[in-house]
Structure formats: C-alpha cells, structure tokens
Amino acid sequence: MSCSPRDSEGQLDYRDPLIEENLKKISQVILITGGKGGVGKSLIASTAALLLSRSSNRTGLLDLDLHGPSSCLLLGVEGRPVESGEGLVPPVVEGVKVMSIDLFSRGRPLPLTGRAKEEIVKEMLALTSYGRLDYLLVDLPPGTGDELLTAAKYVKSNGRALVVTTPTHLAVNVAGRLIDILNSVSLKIIGLVENMSISDLQSPSRELARAKGVAFLGGIPLDPLLNSRGGSLERCELLSTRFAEALKQVLRNAGLRV
Fold this sequence. Notes:
Mean pLDDT: 90
Number of strands: 10
Strand content: 15-25%
Number of helices: 11
Strand order of the largest sheet: 5-6-2-7-1-8-9-10
CATH architecture: 3-Layer(aba) Sandwich
Structural class: alpha/beta
CATH class: Alpha Beta
Order of helices and strands: HEHEHEEEEHHEHEHEHEHHH
CATH topology: Rossmann fold
Distance between the termini: 27 Å
Shape: globular
Helix content: 40-55%
Low-confidence stretches: 1-5
C-alpha cells in the first residue's frame, strides 16, 4: 500500500505513514458494511471476531460506528487502551483486541461533523497498536459516509468489504447502491450476507448478488434468542446460538479460517 502523506487539502499529514506502518502488520482488513441501519452489522462483526479468535487467528476489532458504537457492550469490554511506545494498545477480550471510540466517550453522545469523523478515523488508524494480526474486522456505520470512505482509502491493498443486508426490499435496494459505491472506490467485495433470513431459496439478497456480480455468502436465519435478549448474552452464550453457527458457515464461504 502506498499512501501519499497529504490530507484532502494537499497538506502533509503525519498520520499517513503511521497508518501505513500499522496496516502492514495486518494480513486482512475486513470492513463490515451495510446500507441501512438495523441489519445486524455490529453483532456480525463482534461475533465473527470471537469466532476467528477461537480458531487461533490473531484478531482485532475496530468499531468505527462513531454515533452508535456497540462492540464494547456486545463483547463486555471493561478495560481501557494503554499507552505504549508503539501507540495505544487496545484491551483484549477472548483474544480479540478491541478499539472503539466508546472506550473514551463511555456512552456519551458525540456531535460530530463530516470532517471531524474523518479526523477521528485517521487518529484511530494511526495511533492504535494492534501488532501483527491475521484479521482486523472493522464495524462501520450504515451508509456510505466519511467513516467508510476514509477507511476504504487506506485499506485498498489488504482490505475487503463484507456487505450485510436483510431480506426486505428496502434493505436490499440500499445494499445495491452501497455495492456500487464500493466498486467506484475500487474496494474489493468479499461477498454479500443476508441476516435475519427467512427463505434462502427465494432470497432477494441472492438475486442482488447475482445482478451485481458478487458472491452470495449465505443467509443467517432469524434467531429468536437474539431478539429477546440482544446485548445481554454472555460471550459463551452468544457463540452457542444458531446465529453464531450460521455465521461460522458464512465466514467459511468467504474463505476465512474458522
């Protein structure tokens, strides 16, 4: 990867070489994306990180959903980043190195403009010291805003996007537009997954994947346990759900080591 150390106004940006050096140590960066909110991106990102770590992969999770970070809640993260000579070392849960703006804001809302979001993403990419990783999963907010576009700019050499949708025609339609945006910024797409799936055979997501020329990684059936208990599940309980078992197959279909 080669990033010019200049910001959008052509000025030198000291963070670009730091980001490049950090990302060199990571084999694969997987952006978990979705056009609409409520499709389950955060739950997929957090559970996938646990599954990958339990399969002896060096795994990190970066929560870039700046307005609604939830990875710390889902994973029960209690520690804080620790300063070191290499940067901020994130807390570790079940072998997963987790970094989130929520580790600093502690639940306080952040009124951020577009430029401020871009700056925070750069800071987190530049200052977080994950060390060497097999996988870094990035939980992104819905849509195609600054968080996605800024992250995509830096991870083109070792990054891919996993697009999450649900069976509703509205969610599928928005996911199609997201795929077009990802193609326009030359970010590779690992595939499309349908969460809260009802019928795999008549899935509108499968039709979308065929129309857009991307891999359909499978459907994750609606799990009543997640609906009733949500973020209150312990990590061991989460990994024993039907949701986690179906997600494991999706990750295998994507070529990940689980």
